[in-house]
């Protein structure tokens, strides 16, 4: 654990060696159940408990939903990753924890990053 400033605390989690894109790691930090996903280029940390009925999001499927092109004429592969709940499919943005539909439901979202091959999460 490293204190970063008055508002957040940085926690060393583990080495990222061997973690491939799509891998996930369930951790408990300060009593919070968190899952860290390895995306294409970065890591995303969100709460592990689905806001619907409590499914473990660490068992969810990672997706890159289709998005409308800038001119609005085509669908194209989106860049913003999501995770689909393993029980009933609610889908959350990994970058924000927000449900993809305009609802009040969202997963807690945390800063996750690497430094010199080590994974850190800030709360
Ligand atoms: S528990 Fe996640 S969608 Fe139902």
Spell out the blueprint of helices and strands.
Blueprint lengths: L1 E2 L5 E7 L8 E6 L2 E7 L4 E5 L13 E3 L2 E3 L6 E3 L4 E3 L6 E3 L15 E7 L2 E5 L1
Antiparallel strand pairs: 1-2, 2-12, 3-4, 4-5, 5-11, 6-9, 7-8, 9-10, 11-12
The structure holds FE2/S2 (inorganic) cluster (FES).
The site of FE2/S2 (inorganic) cluster has 10 residues, from loops.
Description:
The protein has 123 residues and is an all-beta fold. It has one domain: 3-layer Sandwich (Rieske Iron-sulfur Protein). The chain contains no helices and 12 strands. The chain has strands at residues 2-3, 9-15, 24-29, 32-38, 43-47, 61-63, 66-68, 75-77, 82-84, 91-93, 109-115, 118-122. Strands 1-2-12-11-5-4-3 form a 7-stranded antiparallel β-sheet, with no helix packed on it. It starts with a strand and ends with a strand. The model has no long low-confidence stretch (mean pLDDT 90). Bound molecules: FE2/S2 (inorganic) cluster. Residues 50, 52-55, 85, 87-90 line the site of FE2/S2 (inorganic) cluster.
């Amino acid at each position: 654990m490293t204190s970063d400033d008055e508002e957040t605390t940085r926690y060393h989690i583990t080495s990222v060696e061997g973690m491939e894109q799509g891998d996930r790691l369930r951790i408990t930090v300060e009593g919070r159940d968190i899952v860290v996903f390895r995306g294409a280029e970065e890591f995303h940390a969100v709460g592990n408990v689905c806001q619907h009925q409590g499914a473990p999001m660490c068992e969810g499927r990672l997706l890159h939903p289709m998005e409308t092109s800038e001119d609005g004429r085509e669908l194209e592969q989106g860049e913003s990753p999501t995770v689909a709940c393993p029980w009933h499919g609610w889908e959350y943005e990994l970058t924000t924890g927000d449900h993809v539909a305009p609802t009040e439901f969202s997963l807690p979202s945390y800063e996750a990053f690497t430094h010199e091959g080590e994974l850190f999460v800030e709360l």
